[in-house]
Amino acid sequence: MIPEIGQFALVLALCLALVQATFPLLGAALGRTEWMALARPAAAGQFVFVAIAFGILEYAFLTDDFSVEFVAQHSNSALPAFYKFTAAWGGHEGSMLFWITVLAIWTMAVTVGSRSQPEEFASRVLGVLGIVSAGIIAFSLLTSNPFLRLAPAALDGNDLNPLLQDPGMIFHPPMLYLGYVGVAVPFSFAIAALLTGRLDKDWAKWTRPWTVAAWLCLTIGITLGSWWAYYELGWGGWWFWDPVENSSFMPWLMTTALLHSLAVTERRGIFKSWTVLLAIAAFSLSLLGTFLTRSPVMVSVHAFAADPTRGLFILSLLGLISGGGLLLYAFRARALEAEGGFKLVSREAFLLANNILLVIAAVAVLFGTLYPLFIDALGGGKISVGPPYFNAMFLVPVLPLCALLGLGMHSAWRTMSADALLRRLKWPAVAAVAAGVILPFVFFRTASVLAIVSITIGIWVCVSSMLDPARKLILRTGAPLTRGHFGMCLAHFGVGVFILGATVASAYNLEVDVSAKPGDTVKAGNYEFVFRGMKRVQGPNFVADEGEFELRRDGKLLTVLTPQKRVYRVQQNPMTEAAINTNPARDVFLALGDPLGDNAWSLRIQVKPMISFLWIGSGIMALGGVLAITDRRYRQLRQKPAVRVEAVGAA
Amino acid sequence: MWRYARYAIPVAIFVAIGGFFYRGLGLNPNDVPSALVGKPMPKFSLPTVTDPDATITSDALQGKVALVNVWGTWCIECRHEHGFLVQLAQAGVPIYGLNLRDDRASAMSWLAQLGNPYVTSGFDPKGVAAVDWGVTGAPETFLIGRDGNVIFKHISPMTPQVWRHDFLPLVEEQCRAGGCEFLAAAGGR
To answer: What distance in Å separates residue A147's CA from the closest CA in chain B?
Structure first.
């Protein structure tokens, strides 16, 4: 009975989403305020019913209701309770419901945050969000209903994919989805602005905090995913250019471009049609990600469902939403162009370069991701594009992008004298080059040209982004530092830290594959691994062979590493749990391979210098985003409605 | 003209990419069966599930239009399709089972509880025959033609829709020479 209530709640949510998608938009077009006024109640009602539906799915998981097919396929009575909770988004049907829930949360936030905006504009924004929501709810109900019953009910469930039984699964998908879906908000603002014909500074100002919020969630989500892949997949890599990783990374690149372009639109009133286009592209790529992961177009670890009907549905939805948006753009953008010049050396020019390079990077990734599909569609058979393509194609735009970053940050709007820029940045640049050339040889005794260039750029980005905050916070000169500005500097500093981590970890990675027996000692670089022995370990729903290794450096015991090889009882697939010893300077990574017979095991040992800088750098980027959205100017925007609510209450 | 047309470039690019996607949907990356379809079925000789001393060999299928269904008690989707397989069997469709990576006791109690749609089931605990047959998982269902060739392979549960839509037309074609008594009862002409 209870799952049927969930199903019913979802149907009601669809009805309300349809109301939200039609009346406010029509009302805004025809000037009928009572229709526009439906937007907020409809959105709120939709949120309530979506929350009920999601809550009921969680309830079905937590109470082991194996009469629900989705629960039977993705859970098991022996699964620890919090994995039961996360299993709700561990499969296709549930993750679509989760998508819907996240969109409802964003929509709710928009209904609150848009109170200070003109009614006509706000109802268009909510109307567009309603269209997106109605589309996805219909998709869920028609092609991937999570509440479908299984008759006869299963005695026990098929268990959650062991790869997903990891603490990382608690935060990675929710954050990623918050980001993915959050891009719908700037998209709706852009479409609303095209419909209104009002693409002005106000619009850019309203869109910016939402864009930063979505970008922030994407950043955290992607980082967590990469971190999870690093310690869970057991290969020691942190980015695989897998189609699904790419499909979260492309919206990130586009959203990053959008953030920068919005800054120009807000400050100078130019780049408008470009900004709109980026907003549409960013959300299209996020829908495309859904398409790629939810249809048989691509095969990957992440593809939950291979079903052409689902693919066709999502493709139609993509056609409706993105195609519609772009069509609207084709008709309206001409009227929105504004005149406004800037010089070759100015902040605008650097931001334009930033946008172009980011878009090139995104297109390179998109092309690599879709190339196998193009070839297949043209009859050339099935091929795959590997990391070498991506690494090369990605670095070509991104290295210049990061080199220009420091210059852009220190340029003024409209025009900047090249002399002043040079005077300001001469010494930091010299220092970065010197450090980039010398440090690799000091620490690692060897360096490739690419490593030197990348390290130089990483240091350059770190130094140039911290010049301003350092001057203002330590020397206390110039105007006080606002949170928005500090957030921007910090985010760029994070980019620099990330570059250093990525470069050093891949250029100076030490990797040893050996076989060893208990009692053996294996050497890798400065480290020694003493193999003490193997034992059997019982987990709640798995058994594992656990190795015990002493990690020693120069004879001194650092720690004991216990990598595992697990076999999960229900699905019977083996999983590698690597043991990682972390400190800021390096990670020592030890994974058990296969038993080679006669007590011997194959081992994979990796020493990755500075790899933690990757996650720390991304964390700093996200922190910069947090500072930027908590800037005073946005808090003031939000305080206005509170006053109005009080007034109503008093009356 | 260009002043107006250039704003339509994004939508044009989008339509082109969308076209590829539409085309891509028709191409199923899981389309592995091609390797076996149209070729003689792989030979096998397995003990049966119900009786370890009896064997079932691929010769038993020769000259018949029959289904080979890969199943296991560990496979939830198999439970899903089981009811329909029983119906097909009652209609007279010969279904041969390939029990994959299972233990005999649970396989036998499964058949006792849910009904046995199989003429007989080969017992393949190590998945030896399954490798020859190119089985990627369970459930999978093969259609074997009168000439002993593999006609069609379906991955995922057998449902009335799949039977009607994918199997029946091929079965009818195979049965044109006569000799499929089950055809009318199984929904064919």
So the answer is: 16
Q: Which of A265, A201, A597, A556 is nearest to A413 (CA)?
A: A265
Q: Would A550 be classed as within a structural domain?
A: yes
Chain A contact set for B24 (CB, 8 A):
297, 373, 376-377
Tell which of A71, A160, A373 to mutate to test the B interface (max B CBs under 10 Å): A373
| Contact: B14, A284; criterion CB under 8 Å | yes
pLDDT of residue A229: 82
**Structure-token pair, residue B171:** 């079965």
Closest chain A C-alpha to B79 CA, distance in angstroms: 8
Structure-block tokens of residue A606? 């990796």
**A118-122, A382-386, B109-113, B181-185, range with the lowest pLDDT:** A382-386
Kindly tell me the burial class for residue A536, based on how many C-beta atoms sit within 10 Å of its own C-beta (0-12, 13-18, 19 or more): exposed
Q: How far apart are CA A202 and CA A455, in angstroms?
A: 40
pTM for the full predicted model: 0.79
* Interface contact B14-A326, CB threshold 8 A: yes
CA distance A412 to A268: 12
**8 Å CB contact of B30 and A306:** yes
Q: Is residue A460 part of a domain?
A: no
The pLDDT tens digits for A439-451 are 999 988 888 999 9
Q: Per the structure, how many domains does chain A have? A: 2
Q: Which residues of B touch A334 (CB under 8 A)?
A: 3-4, 7
Range of the domain at A38: 1-165
In contact, A66 and B79? CB cutoff 8 Å: no
- Whether residue A430 lies inside any domain: the answer is no
Per-residue pLDDT band at A647 (split at 50, 70, 90): very low
Domain end among A122, A149, A165: A165
In whole angstroms, give the CA distance from residue A199 to residue A210. Answer: 16
| CA A545/CA A539 separation, integer angstroms | 11
A309: nearest CA in chain B? B25
Name the CA dihedral angle for A641, A643, A645, A648, rounded to a multiple of 10 degrees: -130
Taking alpha carbons only, the member of A84, A95, A179, A106 closest to residue A140 is: A95
**CA–CA distance, A113 with A121 (Å, rounded to integer):** 13
| pLDDT number for residue A235 | 63
- Given A165, A181, A206, which residue is the final one in a domain? A165
- Is A12 in contact with A49 (CB distance < 8 Å)? yes
The CATH code of the domain at B34-177 is 3.40.30.10
**Across the interface, do B25 and A323 touch by the CB < 8 Å criterion?**
no
**Tokens, residue A619:** 């964390």
Tell me if B45 sits within 8 A of B57, measured CB to CB: yes
pLDDT at position A376, please?
66
Strand partners, A197: none
How many angstroms separate the Cα of A28 from the Cα of each of A113, A114, A122, A158, A204?
19, 15, 9, 50, 20
Q: How far is residue A87's CA from residue A75's CA, in Å, rounded to a whole number? A: 7
List of residues 6+ apart from A4 with CB closer than 8 A: A147
For the residues A44-63, what does the mean pLDDT come to? 97
Give the strand pairing for A542-553 and B150-155: unpaired
pLDDT at A296 (0 to 100) = 46
- Under a CB-based contact definition with an 8 Å cutoff, are residues A409 and A468 in contact? yes
Q: Which of A13-27, A91-105, B17-31, B69-83 has the highest mean pLDDT?
A: A13-27
Question: Which residue do the tokens 């393509």 mark?
Answer: A389
B166 pLDDT band, cuts 50/70/90, is: confident
In a domain, A382, yes or no: no
- Three-state SS for B17? helix
pLDDT tens per residue across span A141-188: 998 899 999 877 888 888 887 777 888 778 888 899 999 899 999 999
CB atoms closer than 10 angstroms to residue A625: 26
